[in-house]
Automatic annotation (TrEMBL):
Residues 521-577 form the Fibrinogen C-terminal domain. Residues 1-19 form the signal peptide. Residues 30-142, 404-522, 827-945, 969-1088 form the C-type lectin domain. This is Uncharacterized protein. SUPFAM superfamilies: C-type lectin-like (SSF56436), Fibrinogen C-terminal domain-like (SSF56496), Fibronectin type III (SSF49265), Hairpin loop containing domain-like (SSF57414). The keyword Ribosomal protein does not apply. The keyword Signal applies. It comes from the Eukaryota. Keywords: Disulfide bond, Signal. It comes from Strongylocentrotus purpuratus (Purple sea urchin). It holds the Pfam family fn3.
Amino acid sequence: MSFSVWTLVLLITAAAVDGASQCRKNWQQYSTACYYLNSDTLTWGNAQAYCETQGGHLASIADSGVNSHIASVMSGYSKAHIGITDTESDGTWAWWDGSSLSYTNWNSGEPNGNFATNCGGMYSSGTWDDYPCTTSMVSVCRAPIQYTATKTGCACPYDTARTDCACCVTGGTHCGYLYPNECYYSSSSECGTDANDPIDDWQLVMKVIRGSSINVYDLYTGASTYNDGSTTANILTSTSETYKSSEANSYDTSSLEQIKFAYYSSGVEMRSLTFDTSGTSRTTWFHTNYISYAPYSDIYTDTKNYESMAGSGTSGQRRFFINRHYGGCSVDAGWVVVIDYGSNHGCSWDGYYGTPFFIYSAASTYQTWDSGSRGFPDTVAFLHKYNDDGTSDQDLCDAGWTRNGNACYQLVESTVDYTTALDACRDLNDYGDLASVADQDESNFLLVLSRRTFGTNSYWIGFNDLDEEGTWAWTDGSVTSYTNWYSGEPSGGLEHCGVLRWSSDGTWNDAACSSTYGYICKYPLNTISCAEWKRKGYTSNGYYTIDPDGRNNGVEPYRVYCDMTTDASTGITTFEHQEAYRSLVTGAETARSFIRSIRYGDKSADQVAMGADISAECSQFIKYECHGSYMTGYTSWYDRDGNLKNYWGGATVDGGQCACGSSGSCTNGHHCNCNTNDNNWREDSGYLTDKTTLPVTEMRFGDTGDASESGYYTLEPLYCKGDESYIVTDRTDFMLIRESHLSGYNNEYQSGLTVNECVAACAAATTFVCLSCDFHPSDGGCYLSEENDQTVTISSGAEYHLLVRIMDRMVNPFEETSSCSEGWTEYGSNCFLPVLTSLSWLDAETACQGEGGHLAVLDDVDEYSFMRKTLRWSQADSSDFWLGYNDISEEGTWVDAEGNTPSYAPWKSGEPNGGIGENGGMMYGDETTEIIDAAVENTRYYVCKASPGAEAIAQPTTHSLCSDGWAWDDHSCYLFGTDTRSWTDAQDYCQSQGADLVTIESDREFNFLVDYYRYRYSTRQFWIGLTYRSSDGFYHYETEHFMEPASSSYWLSGQPDGAGSGEDCVELYTSQSLNDRACSTTNYYICEQDTHPTSYPSDFSSETAGTNAIAFTWGSVPQSVQNSDVNAITINYWPINEQSSNTQSISLDSTASSHYMTGLRPGRTYEFVIFVSNDNGDGPLSDPPVNATLESSLTRTPMRESQSTFSRRGIASLTTTSTSWTPTAWLTVQTTAPGRATVCPLTIIVLHQAL
């Protein structure tokens, strides 16, 4: 069975009651609590979380008895988590559920840990131990009793056929495991809906059982308790035991919100009245003036002769008595009564049961006690409901955030890099950011927050030096003087981001921003009003948190309803209270004896008053409707300070009258309409607008004691809008700290300014960074300062207000709006892209070209500083980056990647210093030093630079005759090998690729190879095809026809030096020159695949054949892959010393091995060379040329003029196409003249001469 299935089964069975226990099945009761062993091995934090799902906590231990019980619960296990921890303060151990730590049972020498051992558990022996909270083991949960001692106490709301479900302590049926905090009372309060009272809302403080011979009134008003601590008496459905807890004797209306007076039968609530406690005491709350709920429609308005807990007193012992009238026992009538234990009673209805007993009207109106529709419950109960104290996170902070002072915090345990954490915080809330820390108190809070995770993690905070190396600042723009670095921190280098360490003191260290940690987010609570929220762009009605007097000053922040739509120009702050509905006043004859205290939710009068003080105007509507009830001297309202005010809404302040009195329109000329005091309904109403006195904190009424006298009061919420004159209204980058100022830290003074002009002067200051200004409203004095409330201590004073500048949040340059492509940063007219992929210099440049730019070269020092900032924000885990500076083309001449001389080159002192082996420029991202030169073959991150919108630069394609990875130059393909081999193995490999080790034929080819090398390599040696042959003492290329390098300048100085002594092979050395090396050495290598033939026919020779003919013969072309596609042979010839002006050619079939050439001039000397061709081009010419001299003729016959003309023009190509002797001795040939496309017949006279 899987764990999840088992858990489900456990939860389903949890709703059952085990025998006489008041605990769920599998839980064990001890005294007033239930205990459960969770056998899953969990960390302390996860174990606590599990206990919370079961409605409890890890077990707290009040005494040795509980300790022994838990030891028995964990029987069979050596150690289990209990609820003790010192996560809140190292070394200060406390129970997680808040119980008092009055008992301990530490094992000898325990606790003995440090900040890393913050959680406690119990050995099977019952002694305790401390250990890291990440330790996994079983655990013991503790939960309060929620069920009765009977198994069949209540019907099941989800199965009407069952009556064996658990009963709630407050009556009704527990809703089961799906809704562990709800109770079901009737079909109108379905489980899982808001209609149910959560179990914890009402707390039973007293109950008395019918016929128990206990005086209810005396027990309630007395100081004693009854069965307090009993495991059975404190359950409402236990109908055999009376109960009173010490809570019943505690009566503090600042925390006690309501009292429920309820009648129960068999654990089911039959009737109840709910009373508000505001303005009451422990003995006066039971009065219809304070009823907030009753099931009777007439209880508020009908006449009454008794309505108090004292009732008729000892005469008759009718207590907790709300009675309409007496008229003789048979017609006595009312709503609720306790016939208390005591002396004799006067009517038959006083003796229905043994005392005490209880009667209630079972109808919707009052009933006669003797014969009406009545109910006789078995229990009377008193239950307390307490105010929300307003300190919960949800009241002021968003869900999931924790408030501390003027900010909300959220700790996230998932680990991410720094910028991801920053983005996440800013996504969580409009003003969210990585947490800043202003002082030691805030630092202590963050430490506690981190320790509450029960892990051993560190967390990102907002401190970093990403914008400027060595200058640490907060991402949210906060400027504080506080730091909490661990010893030796910050250590610098690549570590630019701040971390809250897992420690005992909450100190910080710097870390590489690419590291992954959890993180702590924060957003401030510094908005002062709904008007300011609207200036910030919030236009939706709803609840907002405000702090009217500014951060860490005076009153705490609080939550209010903001009306953002009624007034288009501003937001209206709404202060709601519990008395906003029309309410009856009756039964209070004495002046001001009917009292209503006004509570503004969880806000104090001071908090509300501060909201009024910073507003431009406030108003609160107040109304009294009277019937025979006199106003003046009987009815009053009380201001924020509790002072009685003698005027009513709409009237002149402190004028002693109502609105009609101020306008002279009151009935019969009275000061108020109600002073007419007749039997007509009259009204006095209007707005209170003196905001220095608001809010209303109490109202009192009188003259409503007679049957014909009554009234209704209405008090609307307090509404405030606009801004006081010292509030900044035309910008949102300053926050108010009211009635405070800096003392002795002012840099500049200006006078006669408005508050908006004052803050504008601060923002515009140029000689210093203005962080705040003191404003003096009376004369417009403005004191500018480079300090603020978080860098120095501020002073209080009603005549000044401090305006603190909210500095811009730190902006990740990669996320700024720009005209550059995504992922690029922008500075000036250029875009920059740090790339965190390691490439060689050339590959990096090629990649940048693919992005439309080149490796970056800087224009000036400002651009250089920006780029360094960009590199820090890139979170590179390596510190070095390629830039475009290089001297590849010419050693010592540094240019950018396009060959231009840079306008700015911030070389580090002594750089460049690498000589021929370091041809690329790079910079370190973790230092303030500048650029250095480095070997281009090394791989590094790199920085591209481009213009906005630039498109990829087209790259030269590989020549169609070359394979992928081969480079093309002139007529050859070259492969620079990527592995090392001996010379012989390298040559074999080249030949397997249809190539040979390279033959360097010319300066151009040598320079090409050197340039190719310099772009890519600095420390590699490459074999070439040159080897030493001892047979002739010369160096030969493998392709046979080239001996020695084309130039002796190719050799490294002093080389070759090993000829004949083992160094018979030649390499292209790191100095980009040639060096001899032992052939067995493993080097890289360069293959050359010449696309033209690489050789010419061997043994080319000539023999003179008379005066005009020469016979030629030649051998074969050296066979290799590169010579296998020869398809033509050509002989070039020219008269000696006339090669440049008189070269002629004869083309022959590739299979020919001889040729007989005629038509040459007798007596002349000619030079001849031979070469072969393929479809791609011509091979090399034979060298040296072959010379041949023709014999002189015995007789010369002058040639015709046409022949002379022909000779002068020269013939580029002479091909004998046909030869025949004719009787006329003419020779017919075809010629192709230079520049002609046609072939022309030409006849030449030939003299016969015997050979």
